């Protein structure tokens, strides 16, 4: 299976078998009289990690690239002239031109937008589904939990790439917005399970805490307890999982576009660029190498960022 | 144990019907013209249309008609009859030719993962927080983070085309050497995960009481590590590799597509490219079954191997 699927699958399976170190309850470390919160501890830990800073800078850089690509290149990515086919670097085109005579660097820069859009929105929707399902399952328990957990098991059993292929084959439209929406929909519908499990387990832990009992005694209803008391505590681990998921959603989008069933021209996507560059790699390799590097660095940045934050928040690793 | 297996089987049956229903509903029902959807963007002749209508009972309408056709599809799938691709070849024949290649590729990938992943994982677990440990952690993070659509073409370009260490593509009847580079690319992900799993579980087991007992009995370090620790540490790794065998079999779509290996994934890749609807649905249906069954086998294997697993 492809990369994102394997990563997701192995993570899922690890989670299913209880191997992964799920973010546990905050432990009360710190000297008496000088309480330190878990977040404060984590931040102290994070500040010293070069990987955290490197990945944070990369993430900010790609976000800026997606928001204002004009800052990074003054060339138009759609300005393609066949007479410049595989031409050497010149002007603003620091990596030369590709098979169609487009500026390789400009296309890679403009490719950030679609990737980040898909990644961020998929992660957002995934997070929403996961929060609702995980919260309901964890808070109410009983038959609600039983039903929702079985649903999670079933969705987890569906291989992501294969299901995405079938779902996306159904989308005939070539409109850029429709295709982006379709890819986001597919990734969100298939990718929420891991996050939902994380939310469920942290809700179950939070539900038993004293402050929840106190709130209930003060007369707070279920809705208020879930929204005001449990949600803030269930959010942090979910955000960490979603940061890593964002990276794998970007890889998933590129893979689907690479296969020709995700985004399509004229939308600029790293997956499409890589596939085009691959076909003509014998004549010139830069149109393959440049978008590959952009994609790999972006995915890595999100995964490393999530990894670093998770390590910092996991008291067991201290 | 028995309850666990029954539960797990029921779950799989549900997942099987759920997934096939989705595959089927998306492919043949719903909006638009199912025959046109099957053919993609190609024109359909009147004769083809009449043939397909007859074959898939498309003249029956309503919910009853839909389920009639769905059970038709399921029973065909269970009997191993996958129909024909748009080019007229039997999908069963295509798959029969493709499986041996895919299995060989998967075995190479697994061998790479076991030999390098487990060895390096044990070393990293023993010397936790050493330079070697940190270096492997960083390396595995890199491998886990780099998508196959980057890794496969770049490996093909640098190792195959530029430096010519390996044949860049495999071709019709690939030998072991031609499959080596794709196997390494395919296995690198499993390698990284296997390494991390081994490392964590070795490091964990080294702190266990029975290791302390073994050491205080005066056993040499080599024996403690190779017999006491390794045996217990390999349980999660073996199950992981079991899942991976299933995953790798069920189509290294990108790797096979990039390296031109005529396996199952390659046929799916080509089916998507040429808009061959029946081929895609046929292969996806089979792959889903392979995936579900391999997951089931591994889950049960895991429960058998590790008595600490609770059966809920």
TrEMBL record, chain A:
Membrane topology (UniProt): Multi-pass membrane protein
Location in the cell reads: Cell membrane
Claim: Transmembrane is one of the keywords in the record: yes
Gene3D superfamilies in the record: MetI-like (1.10.3720.10)
- What are the boundaries of the signal sequence? none
What SUPFAM superfamilies does the database record attribute to this sequence? MetI-like
The ABC transmembrane type-1 domain extends over: 112-306
Cite the entry's keywords alphabetically.
Answer: Cell membrane, Membrane, Transmembrane, Transmembrane helix, Transport
| Region of interest (Disordered), residue spans | 1-37
Segments traversing the membrane? 50-72, 120-144, 151-168, 180-199, 234-261, 288-309
**Lineage top rank: taxon:** Bacteria
Q: Which family does it belong to?
A: Belongs to the binding-protein-dependent transport system permease family.
Protein known as: ABC transporter permease
| Species lineage | Bacteria, Bacillati, Actinomycetota, Actinomycetes, Micromonosporales
TrEMBL record, chain B:
Q: Which InterPro entries match?
A: MetI-like, MetI-like_sf
Recorded family membership: Belongs to the binding-protein-dependent transport system permease family.
Protein name in the entry: ABC transporter permease
Q: What Pfam families does this protein's entry cite?
A: BPD_transp_1
- Major localization listed first in the record, in broad terms: membrane
Whether Transcription regulation counts among this entry's keywords is: no
The membrane topology term of the UniProt record is: Multi-pass membrane protein
Q: Where are the transmembrane segments?
A: 12-30, 105-126, 138-159, 179-197, 233-259, 279-305
Name the Gene3D superfamilies on file: MetI-like (1.10.3720.10)
The residue stretches assigned to a coiled coil in this entry are none
Q: Which UniProt keywords apply?
A: Cell membrane, Membrane, Transmembrane, Transmembrane helix, Transport
Q: Where in the cell is it found?
A: Cell membrane
Report the superkingdom from the record: Bacteria
Residues annotated as domain ABC transmembrane type-1: 99-302
């Amino acid at each position: 299976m492809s990369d994102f699927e394997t990563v997701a699958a192995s993570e899922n399976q690890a989670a299913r078998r209880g191997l992964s170190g799920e973010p546990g309850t905050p432990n009360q470390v710190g000297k008496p009289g000088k309480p330190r919160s878990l977040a404060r501890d984590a931040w102290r830990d994070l500040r010293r990690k070069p990987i955290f800073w490197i990945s944070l800078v990369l993430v900010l850089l790609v976000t800026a690239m997606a928001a204002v690509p004009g800052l990074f290149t003054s060339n138009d990515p759609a300005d393609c002239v066949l007479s410049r086919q595989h031409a050497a670097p010149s002007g603003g085109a620091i990596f030369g031109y590709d098979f169609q005579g487009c500026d390789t660097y400009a296309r890679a820069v403009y490719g950030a937008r679609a990737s980040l859009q898909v990644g961020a929105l998929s992660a957002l929707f995934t997070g929403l589904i996961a929060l609702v399902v995980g919260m309901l399952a964890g808070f109410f328990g009983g038959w609600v939990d039983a039903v929702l957990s079985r649903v999670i098991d079933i969705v987890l059993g569906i291989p992501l790439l294969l299901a995405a292929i079938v779902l996306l084959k159904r989308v005939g439209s070539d409109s850029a917005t429709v295709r982006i929406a379709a890819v986001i929909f597919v990734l969100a519908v298939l990718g929420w399970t891991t996050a939902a499990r994380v939310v469920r387990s942290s809700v179950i832990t939070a539900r038993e805490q004293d402050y929840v009992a106190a709130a209930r005694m003060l007369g707070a209803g279920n809705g208020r307890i879930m929204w005001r008391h449990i949600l803030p505590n269930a959010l942090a681990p979910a955000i960490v999982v979603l940061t890593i998921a964002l990276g794998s959603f970007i890889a998933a989008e590129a893979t689907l576009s690479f296969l020709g069933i995700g985004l399509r021209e004229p939308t600029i996507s790293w997956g499409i660029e890589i596939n085009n560059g691959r076909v003509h790699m014998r004549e010139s390799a830069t149109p393959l190498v440049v978008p590959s590097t952009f994609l790999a660095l972006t995915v890595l940045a999100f995964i490393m960022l999530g990894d670093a934050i998770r390590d910092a928040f996991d008291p067991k690793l201290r | 144990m028995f309850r666990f297996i029954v539960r797990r089987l029921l779950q799989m049956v549900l997942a099987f019907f759920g997934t096939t229903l989705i595959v089927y509903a998306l492919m043949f029902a719903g909006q638009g013209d199912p025959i046109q959807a099957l053919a993609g963007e190609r024109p359909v002749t009147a004769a083809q249309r009449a043939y397909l209508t007859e074959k898939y009972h498309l003249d029956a309408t309503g919910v009853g008609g839909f389920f009639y056709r769905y059970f038709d599809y399921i029973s065909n799938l269970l009997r191993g009859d996958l129909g024909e691709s748009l080019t007229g070849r039997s999908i069963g024949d295509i798959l029969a030719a493709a499986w041996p290649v895919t299995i060989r590729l998967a075995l190479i990938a697994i061998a790479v993962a076991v030999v390098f992943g487990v060895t390096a994982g044990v070393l990293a677990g023993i010397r936790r927080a050493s330079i070697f440990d940190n270096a492997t952690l960083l390396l595995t993070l890199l491998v886990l983070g780099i998508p196959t659509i980057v890794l496969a073409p770049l490996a093909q370009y640098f190792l195959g085309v530029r430096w010519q260490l390996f044949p860049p593509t495999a071709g019709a009847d690939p030998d072991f050497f031609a499959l080596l580079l794709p196997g390494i690319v395919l296995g690198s992900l499993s390698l990284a995960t296997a390494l991390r799993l081994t490392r964590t579980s070795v490091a964990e087991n080294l702190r266990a009481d029975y290791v302390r007992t073994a050491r205080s009995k005066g056993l040499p370090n080599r024996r403690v590590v190779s017999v006491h620790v390794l045996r217990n540490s390999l349980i999660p790794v073996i199950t992981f590799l079991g899942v991976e065998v299933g995953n790798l079999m069920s189509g290294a779509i990108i790797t096979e597509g990039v390296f031109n290996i005529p396996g199952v994934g390659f046929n799916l890749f080509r089916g998507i490219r040429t808009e061959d609807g029946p081929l895609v649905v046929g292969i996806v249906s089979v792959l889903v079954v392979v995936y579900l069954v391999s997951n089931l086998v591994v889950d049960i294997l895991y429960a058998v191997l590790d008595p600490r697993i609770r059966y809920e």
